[in-house]
Write a structure and sequence with these properties.
The complex is a heterodimer. By secondary structure, chain A is an alpha+beta fold. Chain A has helices at residues 6-27, 33-41, 65-78, 101-110, 143-153, 225-239, 250-257, 259-272, 283-291, 306-314, 316-324, 353-366, 389-398, 429-438, 442-448, 510-524, 532-539, 542-549, and strands spanning 45-47, 52-56, 62-63, 82-85, 91-93, 127-128, 168-171, 185-192, 195-202, 214-221, 326-328, 334-339, 350-352, 371-373, 379-385, 413-414, 453-456, 470-477, 480-487, 499-500, 505-506. Chain A is globular. Chain B has an eight-stranded mixed beta sheet with strand order 2-1-8-7-6-5-4-3. The chains are: A alpha+beta, B alpha/beta. The A-B interface holds A 5, 7, 10-11, 14-15, 17-18, 21-22, 35, 38-39, 121, 151-152, 154-162, 234, 237-238, 242, 272-274, 276-277, 279, 281-282, 284-285, 288 and B 80-84, 86-87, 90, 94-95, 109, 111-112, 114-119, 128, 136, 140-148, 154-160. The complex binds iron/sulfur cluster.
């Protein structure tokens, strides 16, 4: 993974000192709360329902064991003993005191971490495929370009006060696990012969007016991508709407101008860049950053593992976990492991300090020191030898992290909702936990197969309800919480937005309704190999909607 | 309102004349882009105002033919959260080659000044920051990741010996 050199370390140190000063000026009253707000936001500090929340950047979702241990320490010393991994591959602490935040940032800086631009109207953490560097279907490892984009976007002087927040996602695999079509900018790394370039999508997004991104350029050569991003950002900074916060995202600019006119403006700005405006990242710098992402020194293995086979026979629960929570690795004899943060009855994405330490230890012992956070709010050990899986599973299971549900119905993406968030209309975690209970039997859940349920507590869609196969959206009706159900969304390369199927349901009625939809699917699928989303697409929404509202 | 340039407070001997108000008979005034362009169209080469004030929605490229004759361009920040002025500054400095004074006016806060400096501003009119605070803000970062109108140079150049 990337390691700081003297310059990176210097920038983060200077940032800590700057923020310490800003907090001191705020506490002394020299800085008004209104003036402090964008400053603290650009450092990930939110004022939530109960306290300040600190969001820490995990660039493109990668952590070392040392960094994860440091997060565990912060959870223990400054929070209530847990942290919450987010859909942007970051981590949030909900109970940190403002006066302690500079100290927390200093502790983070010691392990090459920060909270820079994790909030506010600026370019946020760039996210990517959580199997990057391990997946069989990638043309190259996208992390080096994510790091290059991280550096370019950090404290970019021109783009710190954009109309609205700005999120970039990158994938290099045919199967899109980074949801690039629902980001402000989605980049798909492609190869034309030996040449590497970026397919550029702009204007995707969720929130109250969801959009699938427009394809703006099919191939921007790699050495021009930062210049192209500058053109995209400048057009947005100058012409994005600032009169209405709900119309300020780039998706609205693209849709109001129309795709063709928007593309013309970006291309015109790109063509107008003078030679000395070009970023011209030296080839040595591109090579320097790529070198940090060299494949780990994996010992040579045969494709199968007798140890693994024997353990599967001995323990059906382990066998199930190997069927659900492994992803094929590009190197024979290895797999990528999903550590589920969605055990029954726990707020999705939460991990305790002790659990973080267990994962850090496992990564060190069995995982080449590499840990990822997925946008589905799980942790990943991308490189584990098949022979080591029984030991890894045993340790995870003992720590309450052995749930066999990756991409299954209880592996829900859920926003914090009314329990934490002051924008919420409804609770999202309790409703998700009630739905989980219906599908608590692991054999039943495995039989259902891959099915994504996403839950948001309001139309801001932090729980990505538009792109869940089943989406659940909390709304407020005269002081009572109701839940609208959406069907048919997906975030992958066939990205689509779910449709609201009918009147909202009371919280108590949601689990039963979802259960009826799932049972209808099981009755109608051509075989267990046909996934929920495929059956839904084959039959259309109507019969599923009928099932949803059918009385028991 | 205090005006800070080159690390010290200086006297402001310019004035902004709003549209519709009469122009004085000297040239040390700034006017809106619309008025400036209208005056140029009407007067040809006669001396007119030697300064312009940009509003966030103005396109600095409209000033291109006249930049050599301008001594001051003010960029207005009606709200400090409106970041269009940073793009205007970068365009003026890097694309259009403007080399006169570039002054941030309006809602200018201490914690924006580093970004303003990097975007090409060299003067700040602010009621919310003292000279020492401006100097402090300018010194907060000694390293920067990306090229911009002004120092420090991008880190990748330093890394590879430029
Ligand atoms: S979707 Fe709404 S309730 Fe949920 S975290 Fe976002 S703003 Fe809060």
């Amino acid at each position: 993974m990337y390691r700081y050199d003297q310059f990176d370390a210097q920038i983060v140190r200077e940032r800590v000192a700057q923020f310490r000063g800003q907090v001191a000026r705020r506490l002394s009253g020299d800085l008004l709360e209104d003036e402090f707000k964008p400053l603290r936001l650009q450092n990930g500090v939110y004022l939530q329902l109960h306290a300040y929340m600190l969001r820490i950047a995990i660039p493109y979702g990668q952590l070392s064991p040392r960094q994860l241990r440091r997060l565990a320490e912060i959870a223990r010393d400054y929070d209530k003993g847990y942290g919450h991994f987010t859909t942007r591959q970051n981590i949030q602490f909900n109970w940190v005191a403002l006066k302690d935040i500079p100290d927390v940032l200093e502790k983070l800086a010691e392990v090459e971490m920060h909270a820079i631009q994790t909030s506010g109207n600026c370019i946020r953490n760039t996210t990517t495929d959580h199997y990057a560097g391990a997946a069989q279907d990638e043309v190259l490892d996208p992390r080096a370009w994510c790091e290059i984009i991280r550096q370019w976007s950090t404290f970019h002087p021109e783009f710190a006060f954009l109309p609205r927040k700005f999120k970039i996602a990158v994938t290099a695999a045919e199967h899109d696990r980074a949801a690039i079509r629902v980001h402000d900018v989605g980049l798909h790394i492609r190869k034309r012969g030996d040449e590497v370039g970026f397919e550029v999508h702009v204007g995707g997004g969720q929130g109250r007016t969801p959009h699938i991104a427009a394809l703006v350029n099919p191939f921007v050569p790699e050495d021009r991508i930062l210049d192209y991003l500058e053109a995209i950002m400048r057009v947005y900074n100058r012409y994005g709407r600032r009169d209405n916060k709900y119309k300020a995202r780039i998706k609205i600019l693209v849709s109001e101008l129309g795709e063709a006119e928007y593309i013309r403006q970006v291309e015109e700005e790109f063509a107008a860049q003078r030679p000395d405006e070009k970023i011209d990242l030296p080839a040595e710098e591109i090579a320097r950053i790529h070198a940090y992402f060299a494949p780990p020194p994996l010992a040579e293995k045969s494709a199968g593992s007798k140890l693994l086979d024997a353990a599967k026979v001995a323990d059906p629960a382990f066998a199930r976990w190997t069927r659900t929570n492994l992803h094929p690795h590009k190197t024979p004899g290895y797999a990528s492991v999903t550590v589920s943060l969605k055990p029954l009855g726990v707020a999705p994405g939460d991990a305790t300090d002790a659990q973080m330490e267990v994962v850090a230890d496992l990564a060190e012992q069995y995982g080449y020191g590499d840990i990822r956070v997925s946008h589905a709010q799980n942790l990943i050990l991308p490189h584990v030898a098949l022979d080591d899986l029984p030991a890894v599973y045993a340790a995870l299971d003992a720590a309450g992290l052995g749930a066999a549900n990756e991409s299954r119905i209880t592996d829900m993406i859920v926003c914090p909702g009314l329990d934490f968030c002051n924008l919420a209309n409804a609770r999202s975690i309790p409703v998700a936990l009630e739905v989980q209970k219906i599908f608590a039997d692991p054999a039943y859940e495995e039989d259902i197969g891959k099915l994504h349920i996403n839950v948001s507590g309001c139309i801001n869609a932090c729980g990505h309800h538009h792109v869940g196969h089943i989406g659940i959206l909390g709304v407020d009706r005269k002081g009572e919480e109701f839940y609208q159900i959406l069907l048919g969304g997906r975030a992958d390369e066939k990205a689509a937005l779910g449709e609201i199927v009918g009147p909202g349901l009371r919280a108590d009625d949601v689990p039963g309704a979802i259960h009826r939809v799932v049972e209808y699917y099981r009755a109608q699928r051509t075989s267990p190999a046909e996934k929920f989303i495929d059956t839904l697409e084959r039959l259309g929404h109507q019969p599923f909607q009928d099932a949803l509202y059918a009385a028991d | 309102m205090p005006l800070i340039k080159n690390g010290e407070e200086i006297a402001n001997d310019w004035m902004f004349v709003a549209d519709g108000s009469a122009l004085p008979d000297h040239t040390k005034v700034t006017v809106s882009v619309g008025r400036f362009l209208a005056l140029k169209a009407a007067q040809g080469n006669e001396p007119g105002p030697k300064g312009v004030r940009l509003s966030p929605e103005d396109d600095p490229a409209a000033l291109e033919p006249y930049l050599a004759g301008l001594s001051l361009i003010e960029v207005a920040f009606p709200k400090y959260t409106d970041g269009r002025g940073y793009s205007q500054a970068q365009l003026l400095r890097r694309r259009l080659g403007y080399s006169g004074e570039l002054r941030a006016v309006g809602h200018v806060l201490r914690d924006q000044i580093f970004y303003m400096h990097r975007s090409g501003f060299d003067a700040y009119e602010t009621a919310r920051a003292t000279v020492s605070q401006v100097l402090e803000a300018l010194a907060e970062f000694t390293v920067a990741y990306q090229p911009a109108a002004s120092s420090p140079a991008a880190v990748f150049r330093k890394r590879h010996g430029a």
